[in-house]
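User: Can you predict the 3D structure for this chain?
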Amino acid sequence: PGGNDFINSLQDEDSLTGVGVNPTLNATLGSVNDAAESVIVPKMSGVQTANFEITGNAGGINFQDSTGLTNLNINRITQTNATVTMTDLDKSTTALSVSNATRDGTVNFLYKEDNLLGTSDAVTLDLANARLKALTIDETGDSGEDQGYGFETVNVNVNQTSNIDALTIGANTREDVSTANASQTVNIVAKANTEINNLTANG
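Assistant: Here is the predicted structure, written as structure tokens:
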């Protein structure tokens, strides 16, 4: 940079180790510049809670090199039509939230393939002042043989007025075939004005 530009200080080369009670990362992801990557892949170990504000065109975080994360919070998205992807999440990440997201954005929470193998995997999604075109909880994978393992229970809490045009929950089709008791339940608790125009949860 030329000396007066802001850059994202969280980069692929960073290695973060959490210690103590509920080790927490608070980070702001701004605009991508100086040939930087849009999706950042830090190494994190023992960081239990991660809080992100997306204030530019940053694409998100890849958690392929992270372990121990339980709470993942997107606390702010400022750019209209932004696309934010939190990918390669581990099954340990069971609490998600999106707050203060400007209109027409897309948020993806994508878990590692062949990861949600249990028959009682559950995740909680909290929404507050979230105005999104699409919100997806699904898995990664490069072929059908890797995919088909999702959450059996998704608990959605709308804590402040939220408008989601399309909420998509990835199906656990492989488990439906191999396990007689496999199923999928989405529980929505609306504590404030709630508009979800299209809910897809094929089980």
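The mean pLDDT is 87. The CA atoms of residues 45 and 67 lie 5 Å apart.
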